[in-house]
Amino acid sequence: MKPTNSPRTTAQRWTGRRPGRRHAGLRIGALQRDLLFLVAAAVVAALAILPGRTGEGTSIATMQLVGQMAAMIVAAIGLNLVAGLTRLVSLGQGAFYALGAYAFSYLLLDVGLPALPAMLVTVLGCAGVGAVVALGSLRLRGPEFTMITLALAVLVQQILLRWPELGAASGYPNPLQHGTGLLDPVSVLGFEFDPPLTGGVVATAMVPIAVITVVALVLYRNLCRSAWGRSLRAVGESDMLAAHLGVNVFWRKTAALALSSALGAVGGIFYVLIYAHVQPESFDLFLSISILLAVLLGGGGTVLGPVIGSAVIVWLQQSQVLDGVTSFEQEHLSSSWYLSTPGLLGVLLILVLFLMPQGITGTLAKLWSHRAGQTTSVETEPGIAGGGDERRVVRLLEQPDQMRDGAQALLLTDVTKRFGGLVAVDALDLSVDYGSVHAIIGPNGAGKSTVANLVTGVYRPGSGSVAFEGTELSTRRPHDIARLGVARTFQTPQLFSSETVLENVKAGFADTASLPWWKASLKPPGQYRREAELDRDARALLARVGLAHDERTLAGALAYGKARALEIARALARQPRLLILDEPAAGLNSTEVAVLGELLMELRRDGMALVVVEHHMDLVASVADVVTCMAEGRVLARGTAAEVLADQEVVAAYLGRPAEDGGETLTDPRPAGGGQA
Amino acid sequence: MTLQARGLEAGYGRAAILSSIDLTLEPGGIVAVIGSNGAGKSTLARTLAGLLRLKQGEIEADGVLVQDHSAERRARSGLILVPEGRRLFGRQTVAENIRIGGRAASRRSPERARQNVEMLLDSFPVLRERWNQKAGLLSGGEQQMVALTRAVASEPRYLLLDEPSLGLSPRLTQEVFRLVTLIARETGAGILLIEQMAEQALQIADFAYVLEQGRITAEGPSSEVGSSEAVRTAYLGK
Amino acid sequence: MMDVVVTGLVTGGLYALIAQGFVLTYITTNTLNFAIGEFMVVGAFLAMFLHGNVGLTGLLAIAVAVLVTGLLGGLTYRVLVLPFSTEGKHDTRWLLTTVGLSFVIVNLTTNAEGANRQPLGFGNVDSIVTVLGERVTGQQLLLAVVAVVVTVLLVVVISRTRLGGDMRAVSEDAETTALMGISPRRIGALSYVVAMMLVGLGGILWAAQTGVSPGLGPPLLIAAFSAGIIGGLTSLWGPLLGGAVYGLVTAAVGTALGSLWGEVSGLLVVIAVLIVRPEGLLGRRVEIKV
């Protein structure tokens, strides 16, 4: 991994300032951190299974506890991909855990597969089931998705409880049907892995459990911290936002649920490795809830939260602590009306949601980054207005051929969009050239934002054509359109408020949509290089919009003007050729508006085509090459800013009067009815 | 006996959209708050009505500080908002919409509210024809009429109108504003007309505030405000 | 053949009654009480206690137990639902808090009363009735009749009364309803009270036939939930249709292939409905706004 060109000089070229210590040597830092994590995870895992090395009877309980923790950890990190990052709350992870456990046992005993193929088939099979569930349920969000997963969990448990071939309530295997109550120790390449069940036998099964857990953790951590993980967070924030970043939301959710299910199945396999026997009542709804609780308690959406949460939950379930609480209740409150473990965990679930909605790690991280954020903001420099030449370092766009100045980027022809009886956009023609800014103004309800939504694929036009570089957009979906080179910002900035500013910008790069999950989790050397490039480019973008000193601040803590700037930086990350800004000046103070104007002019000089939906007339007047004023869905006037703002009809539409000198008659050609007020 | 806002600051999340807003509204008067879109007009309306908690400042209605009162409590005491976009109950009939508006008046003077509604219906008979139609099927102008009638059924002491002209042609806007004057005259309510259509709003208002980027940049009798540069600047830039 | 139809429809009545508890709260607050099965248990235990230990007569015991269950429902809304549903439609924390509550109730009742079924000791219509030539227990028929009567009553109340008007308004646009001086929270709490009263009644009547145990709820939670989803959570008639469909399917498949596959087929119908028509057979399609 010899650097092809020195990162120091590159960074210098991009940001136009001497890189700080944080920036230099970043690539090595990332690799070191990852190695450190691997080593730490391996050490913890080794220490955890160490007490079982002698096989003494006293260590059995400990090993079972460790094994259960590992199973819960793997299932919980899987669930975190769905419930934490993608924010699809699933109550079905226990079902995949159960499926994994039963399928693995069945494949071993009844089918007679060797251990490794059995494992592989189990994991792939559960991933497949997960994908099928996803395909059926992903149009749903919120409660409906949760309900379908709940139904799945109950369905699976009902089947297991009563399916005779699987032993029903007697468990699998059971002596009556299978001649044995325990599966034979799993053997791989001649090595036998004994479960922690009998004294005097070393629980060698703990070794593969530990190894797989560490590998799963490392891959999962890579995945979460990659562009792929960012895409899940984007989906979690809003489907629409993710689509505008080029992410195919449907397949991304399907992949997340499949991965999550596969990890759930691994948890079930661990269970079999530990107990060599499965009982249906081990996999009731309570298991699903426990896994979800582990994720929430540790911190949904954080990388390591679910790991910590799982350890805590399993420890609570197995240790004497909850029993202690129970006997305390029995002694001091009531000997019959008391809560034991399941009830106490129910209370814990409610308390976590109430007191610690971000979980253990989320809460800690917030405290930490709050401090960090403060320290960085103390060293503020001129900030947004500072160093014009330094900020404008390089053009971010490698200009492709089609971006000749003056070439046509966007062409709307006779576009009409109706919502029920309301005509939002009526036979609109509009064209935008490269190297120019086209501003759309008009009173509220004129259809301006609808135009932005028509171009980016949020709405489909009822009739007419929307073409970008000659490609028809009206039948394409938002993520397709984004990939063609169209980016946008929203009326209210849509940011990942609990992520840093730097992470927010990185979500904008094309990798978010294009990086495959396996590459993200394996993280080959090329990915380190790519991440470093992303960091560097993201910093350059931040410098360009005046946020160079806020990169570690949480986006949710930004002032409104900076949040808008951040959204623009993220939109630029994909190197769009057409940028659509929906009211970028709303909420900005006049200095910020001026800086925004400069930025727009720079982008225009870079050859980009810009559509600016705006009502801030000073900004419009200073940046727009062409201004279109809309009213009631139609074009009222078009021309230079000066022409349009001087147009009598425009003035009338804005001020609600027919002409400069006040109103005798209305502009509306229809006879004024109802008399004068 | 006034509605007063003092030093209002409000917004969503951390962003403050309104700051240091002071305004006064007296019964029977029409006060316009004009500004372009994005100036913070709806935020002001929602804050006064209690749909949005303020960050700072006070709201006093008839000597009572109401900033901690819920929206429904403010409505029951006669502080009524007709929200942006009208927000009729589209699946219910015109009659049901107006009847439900009466719920805010039921503990004060339901009888007077009923008389006022009758009065409005007499001067805009079209609503009687639509009486049993689903409100969602009416045209924009008719919907605005229903929204205003629904508000009158609440027997407002202070009536906040958030952009009643939204989506209406100038002619319909004028009709709606005629209705607004009628309401002010007949019910004695103080009307805060929060509008983008400055010129028309100023014609019917006695007093006006200009809202620009969340702050009041000019105020005065509406004839003065109308002839000042402040309005032009707020809309069309410098 | 006929026996399957009759059994299916009659058991569907119980599901419909409980599902009404979902629908009522969903219409006004967009939330569901996932501890609904446990509220059945609470109702049944309360009735048993009031009759057996306090000595109330059967009907009075039922009335008081139903009322108390309803009030507990209102309390649940105030404490566990309202504070956890503040962040719009995608906020589903209420779902987890009510699931947490269900664990608490099951655990508490199991510890106190044991997991075994206890006879309620009263309230059972001890007879066999012949419907369309098929014999069903009087109790099941009673439940089906109660479900129909309750549904008709609810429809009348909601479409004809002032309170019903308020509820419809809240269901359409809670914020604007607040501007009319009506408290959406109060309407929500009231819906929870009424909904849990129905659930408590269903629990008592069901337990009168089968006995009461902490495990009474969960199977019925799934059935009622299925009935609600199939019929549509936004329609008061939904539970009746959904209960009938679910009852018929589970009875038919159950008779043919065994009760396990009966339940499986019921849940498959639910999943199919969620996929094809997420708003349910009678539900209103919610427009997606951007």
From TrEMBL, chain A:
It is a multi-pass membrane protein. GO terms for molecular function: ATP binding; ATP hydrolysis activity; branched-chain amino acid transmembrane transporter activity. The keyword DNA-binding does not apply. Residues 410-657 form the ABC transporter domain. The chain crosses the membrane at residues 35-54, 60-81, 88-109, 115-138, 145-163, 197-220, 257-278, 285-316, 336-356. Residues 1-20 are annotated as: Disordered. Its main location: membrane. Residues 1-13 have a biased composition (Polar residues). GO terms for cellular component: plasma membrane. SMART domains: AAA. It comes from the Bacteria. It is found in: Cell membrane. CDD domains: ABC_Mj1267_LivG_branched, TM_PBP1_LivM_like. Keywords: ATP-binding, Cell membrane, Membrane, Nucleotide-binding, Transmembrane, Transmembrane helix, Transport. PANTHER family: ABC TRANSPORTER ATP-BINDING PROTEIN, CONSERVED COMPONENT OF ABC TRANSPORTER FOR NATURAL AMINO ACIDS-RELATED. This is Branched-chain amino acid ABC transporter ATP-binding protein/permease. The lineage of its organism: Bacteria, Bacillati, Actinomycetota, Actinomycetes, Propionibacteriales.
TrEMBL record, chain B:
InterPro entries: AAA+_ATPase (IPR003593), ABC_transporter-like_ATP-bd (IPR003439), BCAA_Transport_ATP-bd_LivF (IPR052156), P-loop_NTPase (IPR027417). Keywords: Amino-acid transport, ATP-binding, Nucleotide-binding, Transport. Residues 3-238 form the ABC transporter domain. One of its GO terms (biological process) is L-amino acid transport. GO terms for molecular function: ATP binding; ATP hydrolysis activity; branched-chain amino acid transmembrane transporter activity. Belongs to the ABC transporter superfamily. This is ABC transporter ATP-binding protein. It comes from Nocardioides acrostichi. The lineage of its organism: Bacteria, Bacillati, Actinomycetota, Actinomycetes, Propionibacteriales.
Automatic annotation (TrEMBL), chain C:
InterPro entries: ABC_transp_permease, BCAA_transport_permease. One of its GO terms (molecular function) is transmembrane transporter activity. It is found in: Cell membrane. It is a multi-pass membrane protein. Keywords: Amino-acid transport, Cell membrane, Membrane, Transmembrane, Transmembrane helix, Transport. GO terms for cellular component: plasma membrane. The chain crosses the membrane at residues 6-27, 34-52, 58-80, 92-110, 141-158, 189-208, 220-238, 245-276. GO terms for biological process: amino acid transport. Belongs to the binding-protein-dependent transport system permease family. LivHM subfamily. PANTHER family: AMINO ACID ABC TRANSPORTER PERMEASE PROTEIN, BRANCHED-CHAIN AMINO ACID TRANSPORT SYSTEM PERMEASE PROTEIN LIVH. This is Branched-chain amino acid ABC transporter permease. It comes from Nocardioides acrostichi.
